[in-house]
Amino acid sequence: MCMKRILIYIAVFCILVYGCEPKEKESLPYTEVYGKVVSTGSQKAIDSVRVSIWDGFGTATQSNYDTTYTDKNGNFHIVVHGNEPVLFLYKKGYEFNYSYGGAALGVAPLIPGKKYNNEIFSLDGEAGFNPILMNKLSMSNEDKVKISVYSKWGNPYVPLTYWGNGPHPYTYSLPNGELVLGDSYVRYKLEITKSNVLNTIIDSVYVTQGKVYRDTIYY
Question: Do domains 29-125 and 130-218 have the same CATH topology?
C-alpha cells in the first residue's frame, strides 16, 4: 500500500513539474530568425552550417535550446524562448566572428522577442599561405627579400627575410603556412634589396577556402 502511495506521489510530482514547464517557457520572449549564411570572402551561400540558438551564455538546456542546418542556399529558420538569446554558427573549416559593440564575439547576441527577417551572417573560411619565393635575377649573399603577409584579420604577420638566391620556402615550421581568409585575395608585400637598392612590390593572390597556396612567387 505504501509503495502504491509513493508511486502516486511521484506521478503527481511529474505532472506538476513537467506540466508547468511549457507555461514558463512560453512566458519568455519569443525570438525568431530567418537567416542566411555566406562566406565572408566570396559572399556565396554556405550549406550544411549547424545553427544553434539558446537563452544566455553557457546555460543551454533542452527547454531553451534549438539547432538546425542551412539548406543548399544557405538559408535557415530557428526560434527560441528566452531573455538573452544568442546564435552560434559552426562548420568545419570556417570560423564564426561576430562584431558587437566594437568587440569580436564567438556568438551573435540577439534582441529578445524580435523577429529577424533575411538576416545575413558570415563565416570566415580558413585557408593557408605557404608559397615559394624565387628571384628572377641573380642575387648575392648580401641581397635580400622581406615578405609581409596579411592575415585573415587584416593585420600583417611578422615579416620574414631571406638572403641570396632562392628558392625560399615561405616557412618550414608551419606546413600549412599562415592562416589567411579563404575565398579571398590575400595581400602580401615584398621588399627587395639588391645592390643596396630597395624595391617594393605589393600584390595579392586568390586563395580558396580549405586550400593552401603553395605556388611560386617570382620577384
Answer: yes
More confident residue, 173 or 213: 213
What's the sign of the alpha-carbon dihedral 85, 53, 78, 43?
A: positive
Q: Quick one: which of 170, 168, 162 has its CA closest to 186?
A: 170
Place of cell 580558396: 208
Strand partners, 100: 103
End-to-end CA distance of the chain: 92
Cα gap 58→130, rounded to integer Å: 38
Name the residue ranges covered by the structural domains of the chain.
29-125, 130-218
Q: Which of 150, 84, 71 is nearest to 111 (CA)?
A: 84
Q: Which residues pair with 68 in a beta bridge?
A: 51
For range 197-218, the mean pLDDT: 97
> In the numeric block, which cell numbers belong to residue 128?
593557408
CATH 3.40.50.2000 fits 29-125, yes or no: no
Domain 130-218 grouped into CATH 2.60.40: yes
More confident residue, 185 or 9: 185
Closest by CA position to 83, among listed 121, 56, 122: 56
Q: 3-42 pLDDT, tens per residue? A: 434 333 343 344 344 444 455 667 899 999 999 999 999 9
User: What is this structure's pTM?
Assistant: 0.79
